[in-house]
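Quick note —
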Amino acid sequence: MFKMRYVAIVLSLFLISCGHYGRGIPGKAGSWRVHVGPAGNEFHAPPPEKKKSLEQITVEMKEQLGPYRAKFNIATQIEKLCKTPARADGGYRFVVLGDSRSNRDLWFSMVRHIDQLDPKPAFVINTGDIVRHGYTKEYLEYYIPPLLETDIPYFVAIGNHDHGTDGGAVEYQYLFGENALNYFFDYGKTRYVFFDNVTHVNSHKETLEWLDSVLKKTPEGFHRIVAAHQPVATIKKWAYHSWDRGYSQLFVELMEKYLVDHVFFGHIHAYSTMTLDGIPYTISGGGGAGLHHRFGPLGNVHHYIICDVMADGSMKQKVVRFYRDDS
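Predicted structure written out below.
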C-alpha cells in the first residue's frame, strides 16, 4: 500500500514537471476567465515573417507593394502637395496623428473623418508606427487600403514598429522611397522636416548632422516644424518611453539653436504637450495602438490634431478625440 502511494506521488510530480497539469489552466477561476499566452508585451511581438528567407520576402514585397509605389513614394507626395497651393492669404490646414497601428476600425474611420474635414487638410503628418512590424502584408492589408480612397498627401516619420525585415526598414523604403527615412519639404512659408530617430540604417550622429544642415539652409523668413517618432528624454514626463538621453539633449539643442516653431512626436500612445527652452513640443500617439494612462482624461484618448496655419505663420490646434461607442 505504501509503495503504491509512493509511486502515485512520484508520478504526480513527474506529470507536473512535464507541464501536464498546465493544460488545465485555461478556463475559469472563480469569477475570473483565465488565459495562458506567451510571455512578452505588445512592443516585442514575435515577428513570424522572419521565418521566411530574405529572397522570398523581397519577391513578395516587389510583387505586392510594387503597384502602390508610385502613389506612396514621398517624392510623389511632395510633388502632389506642391500642386495644391495655400490659400490666397497664405493660410492652410494640416493634420497630425501617430501610432495608428493595431486598430483597423479606428484607422479606417480616422482616414475617412480627416478626408471629410472642411476645409480639407493640405496634408497629414503621421508620427510613425503605422503598422505592427513593418512587413509587406501589413502595409498591403492595413496601411494602404483606406488611403486609396483619399487624395490627401500623407507624410510619415518612421516608427520603431515600422522597421520591417531585420530592422532595416527594407519594406518601408521600398514603398515610400529610398530617401523616406530623412526628408523635408517647404510649404507655404514653413519647412517641414521628417527625422528618423528609431532605426540604425544611418547612425543617429549622421542623422543629427543632416538635420542641422537642413534647418540651417531653411529659406530666410520661413518657419520650421520637425516630426520624429520617439520623444526626447529631456522632457521628464516622457522619459519613461523616449529616445536615448544623450541624443535627446543634442536634438533639443538644435531645436533651440534654430528656433524651431514646433516639434511633433509619437511613440507614447496619448496626447501630451510641453514647452522646453521656448520650443513647443506635442506628442500625438493616439491613432490606434493601446493607450498609455499617464496623461489624464483629455490625454489618454485616441485622437488626431487639426493644425490651422494662419497668414502670419502662427498655428492654432484643435484635438479631435475618438471614444468607443458601446451603445
